[in-house]
Design a protein that fits this description.
- This protein is of the alpha/beta class and 294 residues long.
- It folds into two domains: 232 residues, Alpha-Beta Barrel (TIM Barrel); 45 residues, no CATH class.
- It contains twelve helices and eight strands.
- An eight-stranded parallel β-barrel has the order 1-2-3-4-5-6-7-8, surrounded by seven helices.
- α2 packs across α4, α5 crosses α6 and α6 packs parallel to α8.
- It is elongated, with a radius of gyration of 24 Å.
- The two termini are 48 Å apart.
- Bound molecules: 3-methyl-2-oxobutanoic acid (KIV).
- The site of 3-methyl-2-oxobutanoic acid (KIV) has 11 residues, from β6.
Length: 294
């Protein structure tokens, strides 16, 4: 029996998120980066897909998130949009695509919708990003904020560190969250924030918070596809729960293929295309190879 429950039958929208918060029903988000992973996430009935810039690490093998380009993000968004219809689709604005000017931010955010098939964008930053967010929202583009640990500023933060651990830092986070809500964000990610702080912020906001490493007091959760499925070993943050260990399964399957090819067990008869004998003999005769059958 399938364990898949409560699969969405209708399109998830910003309004769905709002009503989920009001009803206290957690919002489920996972990243996906291509057609196949998007199909999986949709089939599992999640509420939203984030095409995160984490794809720079888990798909493209780069060390950090901040070297991915707009064109690369759009390329992956298009594939995800082809694979998922019902989840709400959010594209992650890459480093330097929204910081330089509001005009550039609007143009790049618009590309996620126009070219990438996304329905909203996410961008990292607190109070300092509020004017940019206001401008993008005014252009008709839903924006999700992202505060706490913001991986695009990793060098500035001094590495993957929990944010908001002191009373002063927690107050700054709260101020960031309120500023993002005021600027028009429909939601925000809280990443690597102590649970009581994330819970308090979530209670103060009207818009839903989506936590990653922020505890269960958030209005929803997000995980990176490859982390949740055990497909990426370079970094394993404390906040990840592995729901499968696909790395082992995949490597085992590939090694079995290798062994079967070497042993002559694959391809078997059912994987090959036969030829009518008369045609085969005619072919041999035509190439002067009669008698050389088999
Ligand atoms: O890039 C990403 O996948 C993200 C999530 C971890 C929130 O920003």
């Amino acid at each position: 029996m399938s364990k898949v429950t409560a699969v969405n039958k209708s399109k998830v929208t910003v309004q769905t998120w709002r009503s989920r918060k009001q009803r206290g029903m957690p919002i489920t988000v996972m990243t996906a980066y291509d057609y196949t992973s998007a199909r999986f996430v949709e089939k599992a009935g999640l509420d939203a897909i984030l095409v995160g810039d984490s794809l720079n690490m888990v798909m493209l093998g780069r060390e950090q998130t901040n070297s991915i380009s707009m064109d690369e993000m759009i390329h992956h968004c298009k594939a995800v949009a082809r694979g998922a219809r019902l989840p709400f689709l959010i594209g992650d604005m890459p480093f330097l695509s929204f910081q330089i000017s509001r005009k550039e931010a609007i143009r790049n955010a618009g590309r996620f919708l126009q070219e990438g098939g996304m329905e909203a964008v996410k961008l990292e930053g607190g109070v300092e990003m509020a004017p940019t967010i206001r401008a993008v929202v005014a252009a008709g583009i839903p924006v999700m904020g992202h505060i706490g640990l913001t991986p695009q500023s990793l060098s500035q933060l001094g590495g993957y560190r929990v944010q908001g651990k002191t009373a002063v830092a927690a107050q700054k986070l709260l101020a960031d969250a309120l500023a993002l809500q005021e600027a028009g964000c429909f939601s925000m990610v809280l990443e690597s924030v102590p649970e009581p702080v994330a819970t308090y912020i979530s209670q103060q906001l009207e818009i839903p918070t989506i936590g990653i490493g922020a505890g269960k007091g958030c209005d929803g959760q997000v995980l990176v596809f490859h982390d949740a499925l055990g497909m990426f070993d370079d970094i394993l943050p404390r906040f990840v729960r592995r729901y499968a260990n696909l790395s082992d399964t995949i490597v085992e399957a590939i090694a079995t293929y290798r062994d079967e090819v070497r042993a002559g067990e694959f391809p078997a008869e059912e994987h090959t295309y036969p030829m009518e004998e008369g045609e085969w003999l005619a072919f041999l005769a035509a190439v002067g190879a009669v008698g050389e059958t088999e």
